[in-house]
Amino acid sequence: xxESQVNEESIYDSFLNIVIQGNxxxxxxxxxxxxxxxxxxxxxxxxxxxxxxxxxxVVSVVYLSNQQIFQYPFFNNSTNILGWLFFYFLxxxxxxxxxxxxxxxxxxxxxxxxxxxFAFFLFTYFNEGYGAEVSLLEPxxxxxxxxxxxxxxxxxxxxxxxxxxxxxxxxxxxxxxLLFFPIIAPFLFSFFGFLEEQTALLFIFGLLFILxxxxxxxxxxxxxxxxxxxxxxxxxxxDTK
Length: 241
Known about the structure:
The protein is mostly helical. The protein has a domain at 163-241. Helices cover 64% and strands 0% of the residues. The chain crosses the membrane at residues 24-42, 49-69, 81-98, 110-126, 141-162, 174-194, 200-221. Keywords: Membrane, Transmembrane, Transmembrane helix. It holds the Pfam family Acyl_transf_3. GO terms for molecular function: acyltransferase activity, transferring groups other than amino-acyl groups. It comes from Tetragenococcus halophilus.
């Protein structure tokens, strides 16, 4: 989280660092804004082009592999659209071909598992096995993230009893959860510090704690017009009916 030094930094510098450069945990808002602008410009022209997914992957990998060439003083390179371009075109393609891809995922689960494992080993190979020390945007991570998405989606389709309303709520409040998480994260070990040696239990209870607190606060804020704008809520329809 970005911390403004009140005595050393002016309001202008704080605005530049946080809002323009994105030097805080909510920097993804700048990425989403760029996605929105890009979507308005391109959605009617490129919705059916499979090659754009491949081209965007090449562009993002080349950019992330040579960030020192693209250094410029005003903006933060971590929010540069070139680094996120692959995710935009992949997400757009999935959205426009959702039903077709859903059938392919359902019928090819073993292949998805195999490709995901291969992408993981590819990532560890190029990063010499130091997976815990890499940043979010690594060239070798892009294919792995894409494979993980399809793998998680295939596993989600196999779950029995998972309420559609719950998944829609988590998705619609996704931006708020990401922004609210750093606020409540420091309290996580205050409640569940005794599970420090039990990684699996800590993960489960931590996930329930974060989702429960975030969704609870989001539902309260959603009840009032003056606070509803804080949620950046997305709306989803059930296309399974």
